[in-house]
Amino acid sequence: MTPQIHYVKIPKMTIEKPYPEITFERMQQKDLEQVMAIEKEAFPDPWSKSFFKQELRKRKTYIHLYIARLNNKVVGYIVFYLFRGEGHIMNIAVAAEYRRCGVAKYLLASALEVVRKNAGEEVFLEVSVNNTAAQELYKQFGFEVDGIRKRYYSNGEDAYVLRKEVQR
């Protein structure tokens, strides 16, 4: 099913919504079961539930955990740090049945807007050299290869370091 495209206007940036009912909101403890299901489905070496719990307990720190919610269901999430003008996207994942529907694009655009609103100047992330789908998504947003991390992942894969300057 191809979703209809809807837009929400935010100053300085228009974020494409893949579904009219989708929302971008802070992750909460109550979301963890759904987040963990997506995490385990998306990654061969998933983060632990205790990691998410620990980060959610921190108040007013530099870590940001957000979800995409559609009809009371968590369909994706993004985790990023923002510290001294630099953002670092640590993780982004979408439930299998919502992949290739614009959810990752929506999460990334929304996160970049949070960075921009908080005076972020640039954003970094790592992506597997073999994950061409993710690389294409990041290219659409203007990320460029800034370097490579050898054997970055637990399976020995290298990662590209991607960088993007935040538009003011």
Descriptive notes:
This protein has about 170 residues and is α+β, with helices and mostly antiparallel strands. The chain has a domain at about 5-120: Aminopeptidase (3-Layer(aba) Sandwich). About 25% of the residues lie in helices and about 35% in strands. The chain is built from four helices and nine strands, in the order βββααβββαβαββ. The protein has helices spanning about 30-40, 50-55, 105-115, 130-140; strands at about 5-10, 15, 25, 65-70, 75-85, 85-95, 120-130, 145-150, 160-165. The chain has a seven-stranded mixed beta sheet. A two-stranded antiparallel sheet has the order 1-2. It is globular, with a radius of gyration of 15 Å. About 30% of the residues are buried. Residues about 1-10 have low confidence and may be disordered.
Quickly give the CATH architecture of the domain at 6-120.
3-Layer(aba) Sandwich
Largest sheet: 7 strands, mixed
- The fold-level CATH name of the domain at 6-120 is Aminopeptidase
State the fourth-level CATH superfamily of the domain at 6-120.
Gcn5-related N-acetyltransferase (GNAT)
Q: Give the mean pLDDT.
A: 88
What's the CATH class label of the domain at 6-120? Answer: Alpha Beta
Find the structural class using helix and strand composition.
alpha+beta
Strand order, main sheet: write it out: 3-4-5-6-7-9-8
Q: Helix coverage percent of residues?
A: 25-40%
